# Entry
Amino acid sequence: MRKFDPWPVFFRREWRRNWPFLVGFAITGTLITKMTLNLSDEEAAKSDFVKRHHR
# Structure
C-alpha cells in the first residue's frame, strides 16, 4: 500500500491563501533591485541615508 503524501495537498491549499503575498513580495523585490542598480555613485554620495550611515 502506498503511503499518503501530504505535500501536494498542503502546497495547493497554501498557494491559494498566500499567492497575493508572494506575488507582492516578488514585485517589491524586483522594483527595489532595479532602483538600487540604477543608483549612480554621485546620487549615492548625495543621499542622506549614505551620509548618515557612512555606507
Remarks:
- The chain is about 80% helix and 0% strand.
- The chain has a mean pLDDT of 89.
